[in-house]
Amino acid sequence: MAKSIFEIAQLAEVSVTTVRLVINGQDQKYRISEKTRSKIQGIVDEHGYYINQTARNLKLRKTLTLGLVIPRLGNLFFSQLMEALEVNCRNSDYQLITACSYDDPVLEQKLTENLIQREVDGLFVVSSDYDNQKKLASNNHKPVVFLDRNFGIDGISSVTTDNTQGGYLLGCAMGERLQGRELFVLAADGWLPTIQNRINGLKSGLADTGYSLPEENILVKGLAIADWENCIKTMEELCSDRGVPTALVTSALPVFEGCMEYLVSQYGSIPDDILLGTYDEHAFLNFIPNQVLSVCQNAGDIAETAFEMILKKINKEECEEPAKIVKSNLIVR
Amino acid sequence: MAKSIFEIAQLAEVSVTTVRLVINGQDQKYRISEKTRSKIQGIVDEHGYYINQTARNLKLRKTLTLGLVIPRLGNLFFSQLMEALEVNCRNSDYQLITACSYDDPVLEQKLTENLIQREVDGLFVVSSDYDNQKKLASNNHKPVVFLDRNFGIDGISSVTTDNTQGGYLLGCAMGERLQGRELFVLAADGWLPTIQNRINGLKSGLADTGYSLPEENILVKGLAIADWENCIKTMEELCSDRGVPTALVTSALPVFEGCMEYLVSQYGSIPDDILLGTYDEHAFLNFIPNQVLSVCQNAGDIAETAFEMILKKINKEECEEPAKIVKSNLIVR
DNA sequence: ATGAAAGCGCTAACAG
DNA sequence: CTGTTAGCGCTTTCAT
After folding, report:
1. A154 and A198 fall within a common domain
2. Does some domain include residue A109?
C-alpha cells in the first residue's frame, strides 16, 4: 500500500521537504546529495507513493478539475462534446467532472453550485434558461464558459454553433430540392435562441431559393431533449391536421426520431417520397432510404475553443472576444 | 461573494464552532441561543455561505465522489450507462467523475490511478483487459465495481450483461427467420469475454432451431469501440470473399454501423432482402426498412445494481455475491 | 450554551 | 544541502 510523503520521510529518516524535492524531481535544483536521493528513491520504488490530491488542492487552492453541466448524454451531440472536452482536459492534466441537468433549471442551478463548492477551477455550462445564465455570469468568482447556448447576455464567454448559418445552408439545399413539395418544420425547445436561429436561418435560405415558408407550417411545441416522446405527439397532430408532409425539417435529432417513430408506427415504414432535413448529424441517417439532409455541428472545434477560453480565464488573461461562434456544415446525401 | 465559516464567525463575533452548529442545523441539539442563531443566520443570508468541500474532504478522508472509467461516450450504451450512474450518484449526494479510456489499457491504468489519487470513494471500471482488471481488483484500498466486462477473475465485484442469454435469444429468433438463408457473423473486439459469450449464445440459439453456424462464417477482427472504421473493411472483405450476405449478425452497434456504411457506399442503400441482427439497441434501427432484430442491454439495471454494490463496499458491508449478471431482452421488428 | 485547539497531508517560506 | 514550521478550511474533542 502506497505511502504519503510523511511516511516516506520517516522510513528514510529525512525531512518531508527532502522527500518532496526528490519526488517532484527538483533534487538537482536543490542539490540533494546522491546518497539521500537514492535512499528516498528506493523507498518510493519499494512501497509506492500516492499523492493525496485533496490535501494538495486545499493548500494550493486549485483542484485541476473543470466542471461540465450538460443537458443529457444520450444525445449524440452532447456526448461528443463531452468526449472532446474530456480529451482537451486530460491533455492539460485537468479532470473533467460532468453532471446532467436534463434541461431543468432548478437542477442545473443545484449542479453548478455543487461543482463550485467542490472547488472546480472552472465551469462549462450548457444553460437551460436566461436567468441561470445571467446569474452564473455575474457570479464572478469562478471562470465560466457557456457552451452551445447564449441567451443574449452581453459580455459573457460563450462558444456556440452558428445556427443561423447552418439553418441557411439547410434552407438553400431544401429549397433547391423541393420541386413543388410543401415544406413543414417541426421543432421543440422553442424558447432556446438556438432553435429560433435555426428556424430563422432556414427561412432565409428557403427565401433565397424562392420558397416562402408559411408561418402555419412551422410547429414549435414542447420539449425534445428532456422528453422526446412529446415529438411523436406533435408529429401525430401535424399529420392529422395537414396530412403526411412530403417535405419535413426537424430542429434536432430527438425531434427527428419522434417524427420517424410516428411514421413507422402508422405506416410500417417511412413513406419513401418524403424529403427530410434535420439539424444534427448521425451515421444512421445514411441508412434511411429517403433523401436526408443534415447539419453537422462541430463538437471538436467547440470543445477546443471553449477549453482555450477557460484556460485564459483561469490564468487571468483577459479575453476580449468573449462570444465565439463555430460554423457548422451541411451533409447532403 | 460567499464566505467561509471562519469569516462568518468573525462577522458575527462568535466562534467557528457556533457558526458550524447553526449552519449544520444542530443549533437545537446544542441549545444555541436564539439571539446568536439569528445573528449568524442573518449574516449567512446576507453574504451567503459556500462550504469548501476540499477542506471537508481532507478532514473526513472521504470526498463523496465516485470515479467511472469507460471506453467511450459516443457509444450509446456507454452514455446511457453513465447517465444512469450519474442519476444514482446524485440521488445519494455523490458526484460522478468520468474519464474515457478508448479501450487503451495504458490510458485506462493512468486514469484509474489519477482517480484514486483524487481520493474518489469508489471506482466503476469498464476494463479493457485481464491484467488491468486483475491488478485493480487486488489493489484493495479502494472499492471497485467492474462494469460490463469480467475477464473471469474470481471474487471480483462485477455487474455484466448476460451476453450468452442475449445471444441465445437472438440466435433462436434469427434461426426461425432464416428460411434457407446463409448466416454470417461479423464481430470486433474479439478478446473480450463479452463478445465470445455473445457468439456462443448465438450459436446455441441457432443450433436449437436447427441451424448449424459454420466457423468460417464467423469473422472476428480488430477493434470496434476505438476504431469503427475497421468494421467497414471487415465487411468489404466478407463481401468480396463470400458475396453480400443475405443474413447478418453483428456483435455491437459500431460493427453494425460499419457494415451498413459499406453496403450504402457500394450499393447506394442497404439491399432490402438482408435479414439483420445486432447486439445493442438504437431507436434508429426502427427506421431501416430491412427486418432488424436487436438485443437491448439494460443500462438502468446495471447502473442501479452497481451503485448498490459500491455503496455496500464503501460501508464495509461484505457482499457475498460479487458477480451480478443482468438479463437483456430481444427486440423484434 | 459557546470557545479553543488539534490535526487531515500537503506546500512554501525561511532557517540553518 | 536539509530541516522546521505555519498554514489551507474544515471537523471533532474537550473545556468552560
Report:
1. no
2. yes
**How far: B55 CA to C11 C1' (Å)?**
15
Residue B90, CB, strand D, below 7 Å = no
- B237/B289 same-domain check: yes
Please check whether residue B326 is in contact with residue B160, taking contact to mean a CB–CB distance below 8 angstroms. Answer: yes
Mean pLDDT value across residues A189-203: 97
Q: Residue A139: how many CA atoms within 13 Å on its side-chain side?
A: 19
Provide the pLDDT for residue B253. 96
Q: Within this chain, do residues B235 and B306 fall inside the same structural domain, yes or no?
A: no
Which stretch of A98-112, B34-48, B109-123 has the lowest confidence by average pLDDT?
A: B34-48
Say how many domains are in chain B.
3
**What is the chain A residue with the closest CA to B254?**
A283
Q: How far, in Å, CA of A100 to CA of B81, rounded?
A: 13
pLDDT surpasses 90 at B2: no
Structural domain boundaries, residue A182: 163-296
Cell, residue A324: 465565439
Residue A56 counted as domain residue: no
Task: Output the domain CATH number for residue B260.
Answer: 3.40.50.2300
In the predicted structure, residue B182 carries a pLDDT above the cut 90: yes
For strand C, give the nucleotides within 7 A of a protein CB. Answer: 1-5, 7-14
The three grid cell numbers given for residue B206, joined into one nine-digit string: 441457432
Whether B29 has a pLDDT exceeding 90, the answer reads no
**CB half-sphere exposure, B170, CA atoms < 13 A:** 37
Task: Report yes or no on whether pTM surpasses 0.85.
Answer: yes
